[in-house]
Design goal:
Layout: E1 8-11, H1 15-26, E2 31-34, E3 44-48, H2 49-57, E4 69-71, E5 73-78, E6 89-92, E7 102-106, H3 107-119, E8 124-127, E9 131-137, E10 140-145, E11 150-152, E12 155-158, H4 165-169, E13 174-189, E14 197-203, E15 206-212, E16 217-225, H5 226-234, H6 237-247, E17 256-257, E18 262-271, E19 275-276, E20 279-281, E21 287-288, H7 296-313, H8 321-352, H9 356-371, H10 373-383
Parallel strand pairs: 1-2, 1-12, 2-8, 5-14, 12-20
Antiparallel strand pairs: 3-7, 4-7, 5-6, 9-10, 10-11, 13-16, 13-17, 13-18, 14-15, 15-16, 18-21, 19-20
The structure holds flavin-adenine dinucleotide (FAD).
Length: 387
C-alpha cells in the first residue's frame, strides 16, 4: 500500500493507538499507522470484564490468564484520621455473579501482543514516523510528517496521548486541570500472597493501592503530594521501603522493590467533542484522569469499540463519508465520556476533600454500599463501564 492510498491514518503507538489501528484495518479500511518509537510503558492496567471481553472478541488477546492476573475482590481501608471515617469494605465479584471484576495486565505485555496481531493484518502498514502538523483542506485533513512529507487521508484517528498534537492542531476544545498530587508506580514483592484482592488504603492525601500481579507480587499505585513522592523516590531504597511498609500498614509483612519507582504527574483532561471534520480522538488524546477506579484505558478501549461500530455502518462510497464517521463517533462517545469523567472527578475530590460534608457523604456512601447489595451491584456496573 502506498501511503497516499490510505483511507485512514492512525497517529500514536500506545495501547489505544495500537487497538485503534487494528480495529480500523479490521473494518476493511486501508490503514496507515504512524507510531514512532516511545519509551517503555512500565504501567499496568486493571481492565474490567467488558474491556477484557472486547479484547477477546477483537482478537487482541486470547485467554486472559495467559497474560494477566484476575481481580476477584476489592478491599477498601479508610486510613485517614478524619472525624468521619468510612467502614472497611470488601467487594467480591461473585456477588455480581462474576468470577472476576477484571484482569490486571502489564502494558508492555499488551503492547507486544497487539503488535503481533497488527503484523498479521494485510491492509495495515506501520511507519516509525511522528506527525508534526495537521491542517484541514477543502478535500479533507492533511498531515505533515517529521520527514517533511505530507499525506492526505479521509479519516485521521488521533491516539497521540495526553499532549495530543492532533487534538490541538485539529481545533478540538479541551478542559484541563492539573493537580498538586502525582502517582508513584512500582512493583513490590510482599512477604505474603495478595491473592486476587486489590487493596486500597485511602489516606488523606490520596489512595495507596496494591493491585495483584501474581503470587506475592503487587503493582503499587500511590497517589500523594508530588513533593512527598519525589522525596520518597530520591531518598534512597531503605527510606522508600520504610515508607511503603508504613503505608501498607505492614498488612503483607516486609515489602521489597521488584522494579524502580516512577512518578507520573496527574491531571484531568476532557474534550468537548471527540470527533469533527474527518478527525476522531481516542484514548488519552480525548480524556485523561488520575489512576483511580481504573478507568483510563478501559475508556480508551470503549472509544475503539465505538469507532469500530461506526465504521461497520458507514457507506464508504458516499462522498464525505469520513466526516459522517467523525460526527457519529462524537455523538456516540459524548455520554460515556461525560459520565466517566464526572465519576472519576467526584471520586478523586471526595477522597481528597478536607470538607466535613464531603467526608460524611463519602463515608455514608461506603456504608450504603456495604449494607445495600442492590446499590453495590449498581456501583459495580458503573465502575466496570457496563452499558
Ligand atoms: C500510574 C497510572 C496507572 C494507570 N492504571 C490504569 C489502570 O489500572 N486501568 C486503566 O484502564 N487505565 C490505567 N491508566 C491509564 C492508562 O495507562 C492510559 O489511559 C493508557 O495507557 C493511555 O494510552 P494511549 O494510547 O491513549 O496514550 P499513550 O500511552 O500516552 O500513547 C500515546 C502515543 O502517541 C505517541 N505520540 C505522541 N505524539 C505523537 C506524534 N506527534 N506523532 C506520532 N505519535 C505520537 C507517543 O509516542 C505514544 O506512543 C493508568 C495511568 C497511570 C498514569
Amino acid at each position: 500500500m502506498s501511503v497516499h492510498d490510505a483511507e485512514a491514518v492512525v497517529v500514536g503507538g500506545g495501547l489505544a493507538g495500537m487497538a485503534a489501528a487494528i480495529a480500523v484495518a479490521a473494518a476493511g479500511l486501508r490503514t496507515l499507522h504512524l507510531a514512532p518509537p516511545a519509551p517503555a510503558d512500565r504501567r499496568t492496567s486493571a481492565l474490567m470484564m467488558p474491556s477484557v471481553d472486547y479484547l477477546r472478541t477483537a482478537g487482541l488477546i486470547e485467554a486472559p490468564a495467559a497474560m494477566g492476573h484476575a481481580l476477584t475482590q476489592i478491599r477498601i481501608i479508610d486510613a485517614t484520621n478524619r472525624l468521619i471515617r468510612a467502614p472497611e469494605t470488601l467487594f467480591d465479584a461473585r456477588e455480581s455473579g462474576l468470577e472476576a471484576f477484571g484482569w490486571n495486565f502489564a502494558n508492555s505485555k499488551l503492547l507486544e501482543r497487539f503488535q503481533a496481531v497488527a503484523e498479521q493484518q494485510g491492509n495495515l502498514e506501520r511507519r516509525n514516523l511522528s506527525v508534526t502538523g495537521l491542517s484541514h483542506r477543502s478535500d479533507g485533513p492533511e498531515l505533515t510528517l517529521a520527514d517533511g512529507t505530507t499525506i492526505r487521508a479521509p479519516l485521521i484517528v488521533g491516539a497521540d496521548g495526553k499532549k495530543s498534537l492532533i487534538r490541538a492542531a485539529g481545533g478540538f476544545r479541551a478542559r484541563e486541570n492539573g493537580f498538586t498530587q502525582a502517582a508513584l508506580v512500582c512493583d513490590l514483592d510482599l512477604a505474603r500472597p495478595i491473592g486476587g484482592t486489590s487493596v486500597e488504603f485511602h489516606y488523606q492525601q490520596g489512595p495507596f493501592t496494591l493491585v495483584p500481579a501474581g503470587d506475592n507480587r503487587a503493582n503499587l499505585v500511590w497517589i500523594d503530594d508530588r513533593a512527598v513522592l519525589q522525596e520518597a523516590q530520591s531518598g534512597g531504597k531503605e527510606r522508600l521501603l520504610t515508607m511503603l511498609a508504613e503505608k501498607s500498614q505492614r498488612l503483607f509483612g516486609r515489602v521489597e522493590l521488584a522494579t524502580p519507582a516512577h512518578v507520573f504527574p496527574l491531571s484531568t483532561l476532557s474534550v468537548e467533542k471527540a470527533g469533527d471534520r474527518g478527525v476522531v480522538l481516542v484514548g488519552e488524546a480525548a480524556h485523561a484522569f488520575p489512576p483511580i477506579g481504573a478507568q483510563g484505558l478501559n475508556l480508551g478501549l470503549r472509544d475503539v469499540a465505538d469507532l469500530a461500530d461506526v465504521l461497520a455502518c458507514v457507506d464508504r462510497s458516499a462522498p464525505r463519508w469520513a466526516e459522517q464517521v467523525s460526527q457519529s463517533y462524537a455523538t456516540r462517545r459524548a455520554a460515556d465520556l461525560a459520565r466517566t469523567g464526572g465519576m472519576v472527578d467526584t471520586l478523586f475530590r471526595s477522597l481528597l476533600s478536607e470538607m466535613l460534608p464531603a467526608q460524611a457523604l463519602r463515608a455514608g456512601g461506603l456504608w450504603a454500599l456495604k449494607l445495600l447489595p442492590p446499590l453495590r451491584r449498581q456501583a459495580f456496573s458503573i465502575g466496570m463501564g457496563l452499558r
